[in-house]
Amino acid sequence: MCNITALIIDDTEEFRAVSSAMLETSGFDVEVASSGNEGLALTKEKRFHLICCSNNLSDMSASDFCGQLRAIDGYDFVSVLVLTDVDNSKVLKQALLAGATDTFSKNELGELQAYVERFVRRETRQFPGRVLFIEDSRVLQTIILDLLTDMGLDVDAYTHAEDAWDAFQDGDYDLVLTDILLEGVMSGITLVRKIRRIQGEEGNVPIIATSGFDNKSRKIELFHLGVNDFISKPIVREELRQRVINHVTSYQSLRELRAQQKSLHSLAMLDELTQLFNRHALREFSGKYFGEAYRFNRPLSMVVLDIDHFKQINESLGYEKGDSILAQLGSWLKRFVRDVDMVARWSGEEFVFLLADCNQITAKELMEKLLNRLKQFKPCGIEVTVSIGIATTDDDKQHTLNSLFDLADSAMYQAKMAGRNCIEIYDGDEAESGSDLS
């Protein structure tokens, strides 16, 4: 990619110098302006990837600047950051409504620097992967093909679905991007249907459908067929780019995780009884979950689940029956979670979940479904209940596997004290009471 450019607009020479140095260190080519009108004039001469605008310009407000900037051709989707030295929510809200991307305090430049570093990584990152692209408009095909190849993707482009289908059967793709209405006998809909009929990993490749007909019933039909995403024409480059990034990276991460799972037997990371990950495996792979959570600012939830009164089950029914219950429950828990999640047997009748990109609310909803379905499951014909504790990473502390486990485990004991067969969420010094689902 070419050099990324930034424009700083501020009345104060000192702040222009400080912010320019920060952006240049991060890899930007920086230009500066001392007024809103000067900045607007520069944007008409040159395209900038990032614009930082002070809220207290001498000639106009930040909201006025954003409104005029968005009217300039090519600046519909450029990131515009409003920098302020006062905490005026009304003024900042006006700026956001006028088209600002985000707002930052001049007194907390560390947050701005973190944003800038993420911005650079996003804009300059190359995405190795292979895309099957079908579009019968030669002009649009050329435009999108240039976008995809600039991202570092290896693209096989076709105008007919028949040729694309032949290529798909011999290829190994990370994404299919196809128009729905195509020339020839086979439509894009037929191509989607054929791909989804394939058993195994190839049939699960992400598919983005495009169409000039933005019809709700058509989109619903496409999602029923198995497309992962839909983009209406005319296609916005920035939107397509981000959707492609999301699907390719998610699919590659999923394939990587599945490859790791296939090798776990030889690494002795499976619990022999339940066939879940064991504690060693949890420690081995948790670093990836915590690393991605903090690197990409995504929530990570840990769930500790403990079978209620399991000692009584062993004593009344025998340890062999207890082992059978654990084995069946372990297999059931593995099917219950998403492929990107991790579930492990911690010890005895205690299980641990790592739920990627999952906040407290979503984690609790998932566990409530688990409690409800467990009533019907009944491993070995025995009705069992479980107590569940949930803890989620936060911005105030860098958690590790052990520290987050301590919080979730504490919440689980709160669930035991609350009567069992319920959920507790760790919140501060105390756990938040969950509803009794018994």
- Can you tell me the CATH architecture of the largest domain? 2-Layer Sandwich
Described by strand count, sense and barrel closure, the largest sheet is: 6 strands, mixed
Tally of individual domains:
3
Spatially, the strands of the biggest sheet line up as 12-13-11-14-15-16
Strand content: 15-25%
CATH superfamily of the largest domain: Reverse transcriptase/Diguanylate cyclase domain
- How far the N terminus sits from the C terminus, by CA atoms, comes to 58 Å
Shape, principal axes of CA atoms: globular
Rg result: 27 Å
Low-confidence runs: 431-438
Number of strands: 16
CATH T-level topology of the largest domain: Alpha-Beta Plaits
Overall pLDDT score: 89
The top level CATH class name of the largest domain: Alpha Beta
User: What structural category arises from helix and sheet content?
Assistant: alpha/beta
Helix percentage: 40-55%
Number of helices: 15
Write up what this structure looks like.
There is one protein chain. The protein is built from 15 helices and 16 strands. The protein is an alpha/beta fold and 438 residues long. The chain has a six-stranded mixed sheet with strand order 12-13-11-14-15-16, with helices on both faces. Strands 2-1-3-4-5 form a five-stranded parallel sheet, sandwiched between helices. α3 runs parallel beside α4 (89-98), α7 packs parallel to α8 (188-196) and α12 (310-317) packs across α13. Residues 431-438 have low confidence and may be disordered.
